[in-house]
């Protein structure tokens, strides 16, 4: 099952550990700590693949047993076979091992959103969400993204310096999505701030309730103004006949799904463009390779490197491993992107290859309309920034840009820059 890789250093101590008590029936289970994901993830994946093959039993912090699917081919199998690899996390047999404050609870703990539905129920909910997001055409969307980006740059352009994460990237995705929901500019900016506070842990328990209240208000407003065309009016009038609870949960689900990954897509692409000399010409005025930088990030520094995941609905075999009913599988999206069988070489001109796993795959993969939205937002954000601040440059050394060390969401914490102050 293991293929030696002569270019790698000797075995990592964790990967050769004696059988671990957390998963006795998997003697080669690997103990993985959150910090392992803040170092070079590529080395970690290569080492795991070398020593354990494409599907690895791992114990996450707290001895939580999870299969990590590293192989591209294996990931395609898992994401395209929803009857065997199902989405409802209540199927997990190991919930008793999970502490209530587990860092992944927000994503993995069952909630009645579309994300955790299966089969016909998932089809019904997904169709409504997809139809609602298709309401905005590409030209309107581009104009909206440009307005949002321009408005934010106005707030710091005169200063001559900014943090492109706090002042810019993390402010954009929800200001766009909220307008698509039917909010006015002031409501949109407020909700954006509530979400940023909530995600960064500042909001407290009332922040979530505040978000729910805003979704309720949105739904009621959509019912009162059925002739308006926005995401909320499509959802309340959709033939899928969504209940109030379903509408509120799916509106909220989109807010959570969109905010951090799209922020990190913008941030990770800006980091690449500001630190890699291949993009120097683009940064000083050309726009040509913004799409290329975004695509490269989706392969090599993807905002969602791992996703938990899937739960086996029956016993099955995967890459020679016996997966038991109720086992949890973590989708190693970044690891699959780095699979030597598929990985393109961008330094020798593989710019157009979009077969990455950044958005996952299959029926539960990020919906195509949401992927297009994320990429359109990122593209406009970077292009408008380059147009408005053509001499923007980093004020920190590239190696001092810090990665947030999250297992499931990965982005740089801050991008301090300077530029010639301008006024509109
Ligand atoms: C760069 C930005 C984004 C990335 C990397 C990303 C990635 C992902 C991933 C990995 C999943 C899980 C797929 C699975 O379980 O197989 C997902 C699901 C989802 N995403 Fe995204 N996403 C992004 C942006 C967005 C945006 C902007 C929206 C909506 C406004 C969105 C809406 C959703 C929804 C609704 C799902 C659940 C799909 C389902 O279970 O059927 N995502 N996304």
From TrEMBL:
Q: Which InterPro entries match?
A: Cyt_P450_B, Cyt_P450_sf
What residue spans carry the region label Disordered?
A: 1-26
Give the matching SUPFAM superfamilies: Cytochrome P450 (SSF48264)
Q: Name one GO molecular function term.
A: heme binding
Where is there biased composition of kind Pro residues?
1-10
Q: Which residues form a coiled coil?
A: none
Q: Look up the domain of life of the source.
A: Bacteria
Describe the family membership recorded for this protein in Swiss-Prot or TrEMBL.
Belongs to the cytochrome P450 family.
Q: PANTHER family, from UniProt?
A: CYTOCHROME P450 YJIB-RELATED, P450, PUTATIVE (EUROFUNG)-RELATED
Protein name per its UniProtKB record? Putative cytochrome P450
């Amino acid at each position: 099952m293991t293929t030696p890789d002569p270019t790698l250093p000797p075995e990592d101590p964790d990967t050769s550990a004696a059988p671990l008590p957390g998963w006795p029936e998997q003697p080669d289970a690997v103990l993985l700590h959150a910090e392992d994901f803040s170092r070079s993830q590529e080395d970690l994946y290569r080492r795991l693949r070398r020593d354990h093959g494409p599907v690895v039993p791992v114990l996450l912090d707290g001895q939580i047993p999870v299969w990590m699917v590293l192989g591209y081919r294996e990931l395609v199998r898992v994401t395209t076979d929803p009857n065997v690899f199902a989405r409802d996390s209540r199927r997990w047999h190991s919930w008793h091992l999970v502490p209530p404050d587990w860092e992944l609870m927000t994503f993995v703990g069952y909630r009645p959103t579309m994300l955790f539905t299966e089969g016909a129920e998932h089809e019904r909910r997904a169709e409504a969400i997809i139809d609602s997001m298709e309401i905005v055409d590409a030209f309107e969307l581009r104009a909206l993204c440009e307005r949002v980006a321009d408005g934010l740059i106005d707030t710091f352009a005169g200063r001559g310096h900014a943090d492109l994460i706090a002042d810019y990237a993390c402010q954009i995705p929800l200001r766009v999505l909220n307008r698509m929901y039917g909010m006015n500019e002031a409501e949109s900016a407020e909700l954006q701030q509530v979400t940023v506070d909530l995600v960064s842990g500042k909001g407290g328990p009332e922040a979530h309730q505040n978000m729910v209240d805003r979704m309720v208000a949105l739904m009621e407003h959509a019912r009162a103004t059925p002739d308006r065309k926005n995401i909320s009016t499509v959802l309340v009038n959709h033939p899928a006949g969504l209940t109030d609870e379903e509408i509120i949960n799916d509106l909220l689900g989109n807010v959570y799904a969109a905010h951090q990954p799209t922020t990190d897509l913008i941030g990770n692409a800006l980091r690449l463009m500001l630190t890699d000399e291949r993009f120097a010409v683009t940064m000083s005025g050309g726009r040509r390779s913004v799409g290329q930088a975004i695509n490269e990030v989706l392969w090599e520094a993807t905002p969602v490197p791992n996703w938990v995941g899937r739960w086996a609905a029956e016993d099955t075999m995967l890459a020679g491993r016996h997966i038991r009913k109720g086992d949890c599988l973590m989708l190693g999206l970044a690891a699959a992107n780095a699979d030597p069988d598929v990985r393109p070489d961008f330094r020798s001109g593989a710019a157009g290859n979009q077969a990455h796993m950044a958005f996952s795959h299959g029926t539960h993969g990020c919906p195509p309309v949401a992927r297009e939205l994320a990429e359109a937002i990122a593209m406009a954000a970077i292009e408008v920034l380059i147009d408005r601040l053509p001499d923007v440059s980093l004020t920190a050394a590239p190696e001092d840009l810090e990665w947030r060390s999250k297992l499931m969401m990965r982005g740089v914490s801050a991008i301090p820059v300077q530029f010639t102050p301008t006024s509109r």
